[in-house]
Amino acid sequence: MKELTARVFRYDPQVDDEPYYDTFTVSLNSGARVLDLLHEIHDRHDPTLSYRYCCGSGQCGSCSVRVNGEPVLACMAEAVDGMTVEPLNLVVVKDLSVDMEPLLEIMASPVTSEEATLPTKEETEAIKPLRDCIECLACVSECPAIRVTDFLGPAAMRQEMRIALDPRDQRNRIPETIEEGLFTCTSCQRCRDVCPKNIEIPGKAIEKLREMANRQGLTLDRHKAVAAIVEATGRSIDKIKTTFLEQVPEVVEPDCEVRGEVGFFVGCMYNGRLPDTALDMLEVMKRNGIRVIIPKEQECCGSPLIRTGQTQFLPELKKTNIEAFKKRGIDTVMTMCAGCGSTLKNDYDTPFKVMDVTEVLDQFGIEPPAKLDVRATYHDPCHLLRGQGVSEEPRKFLRQVVREFVEMPNLCCGAGGGVRSGLPDEARALGELRNDEIQKTGADVVVSVCPFCEFHIQESTDKPVKNLVTLLVEGYRKKDSGGDIHSPSYD
Ligand code: SF4
Ligand code: SF4
Ligand code: FES
Asked: Among 64, 224, 341, 393, which one is least packed by beta carbons within 10 Å?
């Protein structure tokens, strides 16, 4: 037996003005689940506690709650000392019970047609990754798009794609899914992360439905315009100033002994809109002994096309980009755009390793910069945190270079998935939610490692938004001006 203490969310909208928390200390067998804890509280401490469960074995989806802010199935997650148990981010009926019914009712049902045929083996295989949903609604409760639009949500999109793949239902699902908000998804991948059945809704349902919409000519006009620029120029944004690739030689040698070498995939935003940030990255690499090779023929990675379902000329882009690095014998390609990095890692089959700039710096270690006298907060780019699993590296360097680092809740900024270009009102609304959290931190500066996030958040906040490499350059300049000795040691 073990004794543990838990804070539990309480709220009865019929009688309480505000939610509050009760703290319970209970004895449980080791290995007990959160559901055991709730049973124990209910049976021995407070029979009025409201919560849901049915199967007790991860099959029915009725017991989902949040533990320390993360959605889990109460019957599967281990009860741990000091945890906080809260309802999903949905309308609370009482305590931990939320109103699931309206969200389950809106999901499409298959309708078998007279000409129906049974799914082939291939069709069954295609449906498989989508059919394990237990309707726990964890994905819906965490979806940022739902907070600011009428989007029906990831679970409904999964169901639409599952039906669209089934030959027994021959209706065209696309007009309906567009009505339901198909283009409001920001590709943040939060739904995939929290799904207890590991259903990859963004990649396996939403992007596929968008591809089907594209084949029917139903892509948003603003997304079509982006694809037209990529097709015409190889880049997803118009050229408005001297690009990064026009400013740099193909090989940038370090200022000191060579400790490593990477190829650099610049991406459209750093190349065309924020070249100074990419130049800051080169300063950091030069200072830390890393040679950077920059093939000039590289093009857009194709992310804006994949996320919006416009994959027609993706194969040519992939071929050009892979060849650019392969023919130079480069074995590690570095990205500093979270979207490009996630695309190269997850949507390409590359003969080289792909690493985010923060992973490269972590691998080689950096000369410590001077500390800047600022309080900084960090915005996790969705495509870095969930697309690449990178979260600790940027924080590590940030702690090195600022006086004070303060966390804020992880939240999509609203720029991804074609939302910034296609549905700017939604992007703005999500940017405002991001800014609300920024303001709560009292930070002097917001730091991130993605040009889309940086660009978008800067439009939503009065705080300066900077890339981590820019802060490192500022730290080095401060160190140099303070007369610090150039340290040969690397952390
Ligand atoms: S990827 Fe993000 S925005 Fe899209 S459905 Fe999932 S949680 Fe919602
Ligand atoms: S897709 Fe996953 S997270 Fe969403 S309702 Fe189904 S099982 Fe739950
Ligand atoms: S009680 Fe059925 S999934 Fe947890």
From this structure: 224
